[in-house]
Amino acid sequence: MPGPWLPLRKSGTDWEITRDEGLTWELFPSTYDSAGFCTHDILIDNGDGTLTLPTLDVYLFNNDSYHNTLQRFRLPGGTTGTNFVDIPNLVTSYIVADYNYGDARFDIITNVDLINESNVLPYYTLYRDGNSIIKLSWNSMGCGLTNKLHQRLVKTDRFSRESGILIREVPTRIVTITSGKTWNGGHQLSLDSFSSDTDYMCIHHHTAGVWDRIVVTQYNNFYYDDGTDLVELGNNKWVVNWVYRQESENSAGCILLSPTQYNSLAAAQLEQPPVSAPDVVVSHAILAGRIIVQKNATSGTVETSFGIKFSPSGIMFHNDLSNLQGGTLTEYYHLDASDYSEMISGTKKLTEQVDPADPPSNTSVMWQTSVGDIKIKINHGGIVKTATLVDYSSLP
To answer: How many CA within 13 A on the CB side of residue 53?
Structure first.
């Protein structure tokens, strides 16, 4: 280990550790672990298309690849158009801190690719339209960036799955969840397998509009939750059980129910995950999937949260739809507006032709000639015969 190590030394308001490398001194900031601004003040908008920048401290690398140690600089403030270049009009631009070969300074650029967050760092993103300026701050990324990013993970992606956590059902209506790994921010959790007949599971539901729960060993096939109370399903109706795995050292699970009932499995599959849940679900549970079941059925349709999206995709073929009434499988056809009108009115429009081609065996074709006659051509076992059904000239 290089050395010798020297005691703490105070520099301004910061404590620093120094190390003698023989030729140079290296400073190790104790509170700043990333390149970025370590102080932050609000820009002053002068209302004339210019901004006044404050004097700020920033940590920068002296290269574009994050090597060596961070160096601290104080960037003098000033006003755009006077101390700095003008803010370009009708284009996105960026106020940055630029190492500039050791003479660190504020700069205004339009090429975002120059911002490498090593020796060129963002301070504000701007869009100027005349005297109006839209401003987006990048704040003090040189201060506690690791913790800020961890907080972002927790706030925007409460729990993340790495592996496992797949739901199944076994007779009768028993919920199982495989073991797996998840992440709570920067903490990896190893979760044991779960089975509702031996481990704790509850259904969260409303009673008089207030969240309540019942401990169960099977998923629900009899009620939906309308947001006020449990309501019995109608005959042949469907409900969704949203299944959650508890994120804790305990092997536990819970269920939230549909806010309504559905006429079919396909209709129930359109439902999206609940937007309202009890606090314990929000803070301690990850959605493992759902089980869609018809009233009083002994088994349901199981769908995992991982590997599918709950937003349904469009059905490509009409024949793939379920519960089609009448007709014959693979023989469902659409009518155009003309055919539909003819069917409803009882009329038939014939295409005017000179002499159509012979129809396939055991079929016929009927047409109207240019003089108004109605003819038919019949192919019976390969023998084709033609007859005039209506002689227009003979009509009264």
So the answer is: 30
